[in-house]
Backbone:
């Protein structure tokens, strides 16, 4: 049995932040119904990675919306709205990521919806919070990374600020929304009352920088300096980074520079006896190391480093990774094909519950695929709302 | 009422991922006891990262352990075992990130703990999962980024694989643990059953790559990082951050012709076919990079923003903190250590019932709350 079985969550959100939050609830056992505009649905149905479509919707959409149902409703149509309100009255969770003000105009903001269902846990996801000068700014992943200082942590010191190459703002914010929701559900077991969870992309991406920002705030606002050579984490001293070798790359983590010099027979490192220098003369040390590591293959270096228990590793691309026994034993992939269609592979929920993985039981829905079923399951037509 | 009030968490974990998860529970109202080895405590305390020490500890210790209490317990001591078991029987949650096998040796594995407290939610974080050929490897953030393929997405195509500049695998696995624990607490509130939650740094690093990784699983193609200002190998030009005359500008998804018109960049006219935005991405981005250098960031924004183009200034923390947009978030809080030393850090990023949570209590010294915590428990 999954922990959130019995929970009904309505997902009014689009793109990635909200849908990834609702996906986690679905993975953990909640019944998640996407409430979608009947004309186009969630915009990410058409937003492709590498133009990859599958049965009329983007592959990306399928990955984010697996395990969910789709209920098509026009929120501007009074009949549809009546049904949506009946559904809300029966729901445990509602997730939305409209621009600030939209749900209020629809009569579906937390204050109004709470009247329909005081047990409801309602999550609002915004780009930059619900007040202030950026409220109307598009809450888009790259823009938030750029405004939050995150891009200044990534890439080498002589490069422009470099964004993280994944949608980290969206995913991370979705995670925070899911946590707020579940914390409120825990509380509801005791109090019987729901709650309102608010998160924003900007706050979440700032929090991703918790360590660096805490240093900065207590260190006279000294900005982090990215290493010019193999930057990895601006706050961590040499040798931390990924370096080229004779045949590929090697990751060298934290440890004594002197020990490292001995293990690798790199005599030039012997002069760095003061640990403060591992930070203050980081680029100099990393340059010596970068030159030295080119002389042998990754396997040769790893043999020496591992024998000495020095934290290090090979650097894998996805092909190499999925060929590894370690990856195969994780059992991390799953087939989420739609009935009658070809196989479609994606990742699974990264959390194990009572020793078991939680794999998807249902494909991502076509737009409105479950409308009739939802109407029946929740008797939404009572009162002759819709023929 | 904060959502987790009344919930007792025993945090046996060290370094970043586990303590980070326990911190979130503390921030949402739980009472978190950090169980530390009397000799040295959390190994993160002795890991030399920053040259800055505040009240004897690195900023990282303060960041990840505020709002917790520390209890010094020698987990191998038979004399302290009864007290430890009393704590476990009373706890709602416990978090560990021992290396595989260690919990069992210490009689702190799930089976043993469940025998003492069947309702407990038992969370563990490993580097690469509890089993498999990598389970003995050090579960360190950079190393996990290196084997997960993440470093091959990040940075430009002509540079070595580039790790992300924060402890992303640590932090995201901590988030996953919080999620599993909360789901377990929800269920135990209804059925009274405990649960075991397991997450790993490797699965966290893969989870944040799910978009690209899903594409790869279905077409078998390794992504190619752009040579010019790579932002995301899967997104077409102009997506990226560019230098301007005085700083930088970020451009998200935008039709190239429209962008060319607005910026007065005639060379972009020949890219009418949207397929070229992908196939000739580097070429287009090079043209843009050269063009954008001619004017200031403010000048370009004054053209693009009114036209609803998705763009932004690229700010470092100094500039960000001067903005009203940052200030209205009220993201900074000041905690105070037991010795009265103030430490500034970020508040919890989740706002509940319109309330932002601020806490005064700073990170503890090893065993700082031995007396208080025990007395409170004994008096219950």
Residues:
């Amino acid at each position: 049995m999954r922990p959130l079985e019995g929970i009904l969550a309505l997902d009014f959100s689009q793109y990635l932040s909200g849908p990834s939050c609702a996906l986690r609830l679905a993975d953990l056992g909640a019944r998640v119904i996407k409430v979608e505009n009947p004309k186009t649905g969630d915009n990410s149905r058409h937003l492709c990675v590498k133009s990859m479509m599958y049965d009329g919707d983007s592959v990306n959409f399928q990955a984010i919306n697996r395990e969910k149902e789709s209920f098509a409703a026009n929120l501007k149509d009074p009949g549809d709205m009546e049904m949506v309100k009946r559904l809300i009255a029966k729901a445990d969770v509602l997730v939305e990521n409209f621009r600030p003000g939209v749900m209020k105009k629809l009569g579906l903001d937390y204050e109004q919806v709470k009247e329909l269902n005081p047990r409801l846990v309602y999550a609002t996801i915004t780009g930059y919070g619900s007040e202030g000068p950026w409220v109307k700014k598009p809450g888009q992943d790259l823009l938030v990374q750029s405004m939050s200082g995150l891009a200044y942590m990534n890439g080498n010191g002589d490069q422009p600020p470099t964004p993280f190459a994944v949608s980290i703002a969206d995913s991370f914010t979705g995670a925070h929304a899911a946590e707020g929701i579940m914390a409120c559900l825990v509380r509801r077991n005791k109090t019987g009352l729901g709650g309102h969870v608010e998160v924003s992309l900007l706050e979440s991406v700032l929090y991703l920088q918790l360590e660096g920002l805490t240093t900065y705030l207590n260190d006279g606002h000294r900005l982090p300096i990215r290493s010019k050579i193999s930057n990895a984490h601006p706050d961590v001293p040499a040798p931390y980074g990924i370096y080229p070798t004779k045949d590929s790359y090697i990751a060298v983590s934290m440890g004594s520079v002197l020990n490292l010099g001995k293990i690798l027979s790199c005599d030039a490192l012997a002069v760095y006896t003061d640990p403060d220098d591992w930070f203050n003369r980081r680029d100099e040390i990393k340059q010596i190391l970068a030159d030295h590591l080119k002389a042998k293959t990754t396997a040769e270096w790893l043999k020496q480093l591992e024998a000495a228990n020095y934290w290090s590793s090979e650097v894998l691309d996805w092909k190499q990774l999925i060929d590894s026994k370690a990856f195969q034993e994780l059992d991390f992939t799953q087939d989420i094909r739609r009935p009658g269609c070809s196989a479609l592979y994606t990742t699974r929920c990264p959390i194990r519950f009572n020793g078991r993985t939680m794999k998807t039981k249902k494909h991502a829905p076509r737009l409105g695929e479950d409308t009739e079923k939802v109407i029946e399951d929740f008797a939404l037509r009572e009162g002759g709302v819709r023929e | 009422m904060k959502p987790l009030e009344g919930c007792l968490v025993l945090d046996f974990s060290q370094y970043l991922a586990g303590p980070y998860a326990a911190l979130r529970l503390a921030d949402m109202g739980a009472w978190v006891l950090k169980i530390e080895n009397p000799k040295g405590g959390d190994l993160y305390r002795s890991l030399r990262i920053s040259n800055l020490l505040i009240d004897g500890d690195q900023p990282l210790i303060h960041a990840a352990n505020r709002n917790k209490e520390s209890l010094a317990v020698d987990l191998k001591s038979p004399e302290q075992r009864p007290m430890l078991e009393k704590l476990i029987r009373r706890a709602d949650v416990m978090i560990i990130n021992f290396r595989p096998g260690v919990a069992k040796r210490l009689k702190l594995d799930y089976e043993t703990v469940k025998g003492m407290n069947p309702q407990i939610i038992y969370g563990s974080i490993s580097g690469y999962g509890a089993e498999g050929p990598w389970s003995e490897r050090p579960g360190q953030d950079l190393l996990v980024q290196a084997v997960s393929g993440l470093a091959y997405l990040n940075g430009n195509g002509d540079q070595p694989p580039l790790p992300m500049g924060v402890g992303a695998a640590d932090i995201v696995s901590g988030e996953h643990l919080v999620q599993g624990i909360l789901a377990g607490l929800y269920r135990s509130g209804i059925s009274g059953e405990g649960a075991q939650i397991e997450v790993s740094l490797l699965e966290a690093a893969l989870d944040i790559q799910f978009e690209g990784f899903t594409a790869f699983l279905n077409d078998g193609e390794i992504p190619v990082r752009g040579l010019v200002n790579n932002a995301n190998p899967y997104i077409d030009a102009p997506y990226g951050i560019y230098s301007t005359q005085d700083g930088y500008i970020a451009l998200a998804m935008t039709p190239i012709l429209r962008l060319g018109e607005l910026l007065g960049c005639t060379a972009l006219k020949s890219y009418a076919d949207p397929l070229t935005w992908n196939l000739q991405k580097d070429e287009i981005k090079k043209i843009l990079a050269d063009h954008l250098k001619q004017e200031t960031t403010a000048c370009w924004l004054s053209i693009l923003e009114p036209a609803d183009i998705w763009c932004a200034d690229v700010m470092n923390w100094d500039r960000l903190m001067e903005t009203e947009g940052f200030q209205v978030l009220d993201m900074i809080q000041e905690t105070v250590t037991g010795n009265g030393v103030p430490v500034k850090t970020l508040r919890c990023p989740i706002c509940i019932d319109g309330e932002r949570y601020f806490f005064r209590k700073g990170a503890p010294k090893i065993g700082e709350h031995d007396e208080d915590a025990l007395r409170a428990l004994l008096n219950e």
